[in-house]
Amino acid sequence: MSLLSLIFKNVLRRKSELAFLLIAIAFGVAAVFILFSLRLGIEQTLFGSSKMQNRLSELTVYGSSGSPFFNFFGAKSKSLNDEAIIQIQKIPHVISVSKSLTYQNLASIELNLAGQKIQTDSLIFGLERHVVAQDLPPQIAWDGSENPIPVLISSKLIDFYNLSLAPGAGLPPLSGETFQGETITILPGFSSFFQNQKTASQKLEGRVVGFSDRTDIIGVTVPLTNVLKLNQEEGISKPIYSKLLVQLDSPEKVPKVTQALEAEGFRVSSIQNELQEVGKTLSSISIILFVLTGMILILAGTMMGVSFWSSLWRRRNELGVLRAIGATRRTLFIMLLGEAAIIGITSAIFGLLLGSAATIFFQKLLVQNFSLTSIATDEIFSRSPLLLLTIGGLTILLSMSAASLPILKILRQTPRELMIL
Questions:
Q1: Are the C-beta atoms of residues 335 and 308 closer than 8 Å to each other?
Q2: DSSP-assigned states of every residue in 28-91
Q3: Partner of 266 for a Cys bridge, out of 111, 220, 261, 386, CB 3.0 to 4.6 A?
Q4: Are 333 and 400 in contact (CB under 8 A)?
Q5: Is the Cβ–Cβ distance between 78 and 281 less than 8 Å?
């Protein structure tokens, strides 16, 4: 009988004895896999999406305060006008500057929702087409000439309603299709809240053409040209932009250009800074995961060592006979370590299968509950081959390491000592 077949025979002979140990280690492996699968999935969702990668080289620039308090400390005051755009375009590594403009007066919108007419105050924002092009139907020109005016709504607004307002108020969830193609009446210069006038002096017809995460959540977004015209009707001939979107030639140039803009008195934010904060949070989560993993590994290793020592103690006569008929310590060490490896392999397989099944179940549950939001949940768990191999390999190594000490201890005994113990 070969050594390998003997190893398998010994494990199968003790299957009832090892069942609890296998189940315990398998659950530990599943728990570790679920935790790290979630952590890696969140990281890939946040950092690996194509939209996020495209925005890594983008800066959002704001004007600085012009108050006396601000200038008292020697800081420069900057307004986002056409002159500022020319100045920013001269900075090295800047490819383009896109404008965002806000209507400089009160405004309201009217729309039909679930058969009811709703009127609410709203800000009106204007963006250039290339900023939101990926969220627009191809037939939409977005140049200010269309009637009704094309309107984009923030996808975050739908998320806020479905995740916060609707559950608390017992309202039905809404999807983007609820608003798609709906007519919106824009009432510039009129507020339903402040009642600055009894009736709106002007009504503009708009139509919802899509949703975007590039738009502001506290209002509706229309072509920049439309907002320019509305502000001109308010007597504002020279626009002061609410923010500028500055595209650079490389993400590596973000710190350098940020420093140059701040030196000129602008306020600057970037996706990179936001991701750094998220990265710090993920690092904290990783530390917690490593602590939990360490605790699970210590518990599993302890169980493996105690169980293996108990098993070897019961088999001491068998081991003594094998030594007496010529089996060397090396042969017995390989045989017993092979049994530990089989336990580790079996536990790893069942644990990873259990963990994978659990992540698939949780992912389907998340997709089902967040299907009406823009939150990407279809890849929230990562089941990468590298993660599977890493956890599987560590499980096998842990099983063999935990069993090594009891094996070495029992094999120090002579055949006579083993048989009379």
A1: no
A2: HHHHHHHHHHHHHHHHHHHHS-HHHHHTTTEEEEEPPP--HHHHHTTPPP---SHHHHHHHHTS
A3: 261
A4: no
A5: no
Distances (CA, A) of 300 to 14, 33, 87: 19, 15, 63
Name the token pair of 64: 């600085």
Distance CA 381, CA 366 (A): 11
Q: Which helix (H) or strand (E) covers residue 322, if one does?
A: helix 316-324
Judged by DSSP in three states, 107 sits in: strand
* CA-to-CA dists, residue 286 to 45, 103, 363, angstroms: 16, 45, 21
Q: Supply the pLDDT for residue 66.
A: 43
Contact 381, 359 (CB under 8 A): yes
> CB under 8 Å to 153, separation ≥6 — which residues?
179, 208, 210, 211, 212, 215, 220, 221
Instruction: Return the axis-axis angle of helices 385-411 and 316-324, rounded to nearest 10°.
Output: 70
| pLDDT tens-place string over residues 110-153 | 887 666 788 888 899 999 999 999 889 989 999 888 889 999 98
pTM, two decimals, is 0.68
Q: How many CB atoms lie within 10 A of CB 35?
A: 18
Q: Please say whether the beta carbons of 249 and 95 come within 8 A.
A: yes
CA-wise closest residue to 81 among 60, 68, 63? 63
* 8 Å CB contact between 259 and 273: no
Q: How many CB atoms lie within 10 A of CB 48?
A: 12
Q: Determine the residue type at 347.
A: S
What is the helix (H) or strand (E) element at residue 213, kind and residue range?
Answer: none
Query: How big is the chain, counted in residues?
Result: 421
